[in-house]
UniProtKB/TrEMBL annotation:
<keyword id="KW-0067">ATP-binding</keyword>
<dbReference type="GO" id="GO:0015658">
    <property type="term" value="F:branched-chain amino acid transmembrane transporter activity"/>
</dbReference>
<dbReference type="GO" id="GO:0005524">
    <property type="term" value="F:ATP binding"/>
</dbReference>
<keyword id="KW-0029">Amino-acid transport</keyword>
<keyword id="KW-0813">Transport</keyword>
<dbReference type="Pfam" id="PF00005">
    <property type="entry name" value="ABC_tran"/>
</dbReference>
<comment type="similarity">
    <text>Belongs to the ABC transporter superfamily.</text>
</comment>
<dbReference type="InterPro" id="IPR017871">
    <property type="entry name" value="ABC_transporter-like_CS"/>
</dbReference>
<keyword id="KW-0547">Nucleotide-binding</keyword>
<dbReference type="InterPro" id="IPR052156">
    <property type="entry name" value="BCAA_Transport_ATP-bd_LivF"/>
</dbReference>
<dbReference type="InterPro" id="IPR003593">
    <property type="entry name" value="AAA+_ATPase"/>
</dbReference>
<dbReference type="InterPro" id="IPR027417">
    <property type="entry name" value="P-loop_NTPase"/>
</dbReference>
<keyword id="KW-0472">Membrane</keyword>
<feature type="domain" description="ABC transporter">
    <location>
        <begin position="10"/>
        <end position="247"/>
    </location>
</feature>
<dbReference type="InterPro" id="IPR003439">
    <property type="entry name" value="ABC_transporter-like_ATP-bd"/>
</dbReference>
<dbReference type="GO" id="GO:0016887">
    <property type="term" value="F:ATP hydrolysis activity"/>
</dbReference>
<protein>
    <submittedName>
        <fullName>ABC transporter ATP-binding protein</fullName>
    </submittedName>
</protein>
Amino acid sequence: MSPAADRALLRLEGVHTHIGAYHILHGVDLAAREGEVTMLLGRNGAGKTTTLRTVMGLWRAGAGRVLLDGRPIQALPTPEIARLDIAYVPENMGIFGDLTVRENLLLAARRARSLDELDTARLDWLFDLFPALRKFWLYPAGKLSGGQKQMLAIARAMVEPRRLLLIDEPTKGLAPAIIRNLIEALQEIKRGRDGARTTVLLVEQNFMVAQALGDGVAVMDDGRVVHAGRMADLAGDEALQQRLLGLSLAAHQ
């Protein structure tokens, strides 16, 4: 086992996932090191979203193991997985458009039954990360801009401390200025609050975002992880970028 896997909070070992008649994941091996951001990269259809959904139990692993801190979780129902302090931000964000920003956050706080029971210090921290949420506190979430909805989706996942945060393409379709703001917020989440860092597994198509946020990286192709290592090493190797992703970072600067 590699040193990265030895220090991993999350590990996938030989994971296969079928969706109906389709065999999507073909023996995925993946390690997300504790306290780090691991970028999950690859072309469209490589299996990245299926990997996140398999970790959450939304789609079941037909073979292999999903381990959190060494504990197999692949057979647990999704609500039990979430109670292990794992949060998932899907590509469609999954917010409730008819509810206010406040109601969306309260709904995600399993330990709070009312606004008074929310951790106010943590809420202030989230407002510092995403100031628009304070401004639109009583605003229907469905009327927020795309960037504001993405901020709400991430804040909702972080309204309580999480050991592991799974995020699927948070910058997709956003304007460059909003992407920069989101990168800054995710960097702050990466640094952690009160010294408690959250482990993040993040799917992203924007290589510049991946370079800015990633500590580790795994590249998928055809339902398998075909490369795993440090993000800085991939960012510094144009030939490897071209071979794995069909792009060169230098061409995007």
